[in-house]
Amino acid sequence: MTELFDQIDELRRSPGKVAVATLVNTRGTTPRKEGAKMLVGEGGSVLGSVTIGGCVDAQVIEQTEDVLNTNRPRLLELNLGDEEAWEIGLTCGGTIEVFVEPLTADLLEGVRAHTAKGGRAAIVTRLDGPVGLKILLLDDGTTSGTLGDATLDERFTEEARDAMTVGTSRTLLAEGARAFVEVFTPSALLLVVGASHVSMPMTELARVLGYRTIVIDGRPRFATRERFPQVDELRIGIPSELVGEYPLAPSTALVLMAHDYKYDLPVLHKALATDVGYIGMLGSTRRGAAILKLLAEEGQSDAALKRVRVPIGLDIGARSAPEIALAVMAEIQAVRGGGTGQPMSTKPRRDTVPVSGLSGSAPSSKS
Q: Does domain 189-339 bear CATH number 3.40.50.720?
C-alpha cells in the first residue's frame, strides 16, 4: 500500500497524465495476483508491474498511450503461450485480463487517508457496459459513486463488503454484469519506541519492506533526522502519550527499543489494552522476566503477558545492530504473513500462502 502511493506521488510530480494498469483476472493454474498494478506516465515512466515484467507488461504499456489520448479506460484480454505463462507463474498457457485507466487520484487519496487511520476500503470498478464507473466503500459505512444502475450498486456493494472482510481483491459477476472489487487494507505500520542504534537500520529495512515507520523518543539528542533520515515520522515527547495517537491495530507492529522501565511499562499497558498485532521488546531473558513480573503485579493477565515478545526476533545468530534489526524484522514479517520462521528447505510443502494482519501470539526465540 505504501509503495503504491509513493509511486503515484512520484509520477504525479512529473508532467503529463498517468495511466494505471491493474491485473483483474487470471485463468489457469496460478497463484492469484489480482490487484497487481503498474503505473505508466505520459512521458514513458513505468513503475510497478502487473506480472513480473517482460513481454506481458510490454503489451500493456503499448495500450496505455491510447487510454491516455482518449481518456477512456480499456479492459485488455491477453492470451499467453506456454513460455509467457511460465513468466507469471502459470504452469501452462492461459489468459489474463488487465484493466487500464487514467489515474483517478482523488479516489485513491480518500483510500490513503482512511487506511492511514487503520481502516479498510474497497473500490468497485465496472468492467462491462459503462466501463470504468466506480463505487468507493469504507469500513465505517461511507459509500460514494455508482456503477450506473441502482440494482448493481446494491449487489456489488454487498459483495465488496464481504471482500473487505476477507481482505481479497477479485473480479465478480452479479446481475449479468462484471466488476472488479479491489480491497485496500491498512499499510503495515512499524511503531518504534526508542531512537536506539538498532532502531536506525530497522526502520530503513522496514521501509524497503513497505512499512510506514514512526520513531518515538523523549530524548531530542537521539531522535534526530541525521540519525533517521528516511523515517516517515520522528516524534519527541512522552512515548506513552504519543503512541496513543497511532492506530494500535492488527496491522501495526510495536517495538520497544528504549531499554528504559519508565518508557516500557506505560507503553506496554497501553498496547495490551488494544488489538495491536505485534509487541516486541529489546532485552535479555532476565530483563524480560522482570518486566513481565511487574506487568503481572500491575494487573495484566497471563494471556496478555504472552503477547509480549522478549527477547525479540528470530534466532539468526545476530550480533551487530543491523543483524539484530534483520532478526526483528524477520520475526515481524513471519507473524504478518503467518509464517513459522523455520528454513524453507525443512518446511512441509504448502500450496497456498495465507494473507493476514499481524497477530500477537506465541513467544519468540532469542535473537
A: yes
Which three three-digit cell numbers place residue 182? 479491489
CB contact at 8 A, 338 and 295? no
C-alpha cell at 40: 505508466
Per-residue model confidence as pLDDT tens digits over 79-136? 765 555 555 455 445 678 999 999 887 888 888 888 877 789 999 999 998 999 999 9
How do residues 290-337 score in pLDDT, each as one tens digit? 999 999 999 999 999 999 999 999 999 999 999 999 999 999 999 988
SS3 content of the chain, % helix, strand, coil (to 5): 35, 25, 40
C-alpha cell at 173: 459477476
Cis check for the bond before 354: say yes or no (omega within 30 of 0). no
Give the model confidence (pLDDT) of 154-165 as tens digits: 999 999 999 988
Q: For residue 206, what are the contacts with CB-CB under 8 A and spacing of at least 6?
A: 190, 213, 329
366 contact partners, CB below 8 Å, separation of at least 6: 285, 311, 313, 315
- Dihedrals phi, psi of 140, to nearest 5 degrees: -90, 5
Domain boundaries, the chain: 9-103, 104-186, 189-339
Q: Tell if the pTM clears 0.70, that is, is over it.
A: no
Q: Indicate left, alpha or beta for 365 from its phi (over 0: left) and psi (-120 to 50: alpha).
A: beta
* Residue among 233, 242, 253 nearest 336 (CA): 253
